[in-house]
């Protein structure tokens, strides 16, 4: 895999884009954490309600137990305390239910907040980035090989816009079909430039005669 282009403007643009994507993800992670913390604060009233209800229920139950020891009328005196204690326990349970609901929201809302930004990265930006890396790695591997340059030329003919191809000459396709080396090189370099890659390396003086005279 080739992470960045050879040409400086393209490489800088890719690097800046990668940094912005990382910052974008970090920003939304921070937003999700903020949403979680904010929603969790909504559980505070429920916790206080549960604590107060439980405390009142315990006190009423304790008082009812003491009143119940009164001879003859103890059972009758206990009933109001028992009913009030049950009501206090219901309040405590409502407080606990409110906390459970807030805990669920504190999990769901941050996931919703970060899901769309991450989906944009994973399903739009990342596939395009990986596709470029694969194409650039393959192009860089074959650009110094004559057969590879033919493939690059064919790729340029198939994929580059007509306005770019027309700049190479009105008969560029015919020249390529005829095997004209200048046309092949021009098309191959057009494809390489579109990927931000440099053309093939110049042959060293000791590497033998050039392809073209």
Query: Given the C-alpha coordinates, what overall shape results?
Result: rod-shaped
Supply the number of structural domains: 2
What integer is the average pLDDT?
83
Low-confidence stretches: 202-213
Residue share in helix: over 70%
Based on secondary structure, the structural category is mainly alpha
Strand content: under 5%
User: What is the terminal separation in angstroms?
Assistant: 35 Å
Beta-strand segment tally: 0
Total of helices: 7
Radius of gyration, in angstroms, nearest whole number = 37 Å
**Oligomeric organization of the protein chains:** single chain
Major pleated sheet:
none
- Secondary-structure element string: HHHHHHH
Question: What is the strand and helix layout of this fold?
Answer:
Elements: H1 8-41, H2 43-67, H3 74-142, H4 146-159, H5 162-166, H6 172-177, H7 181-194
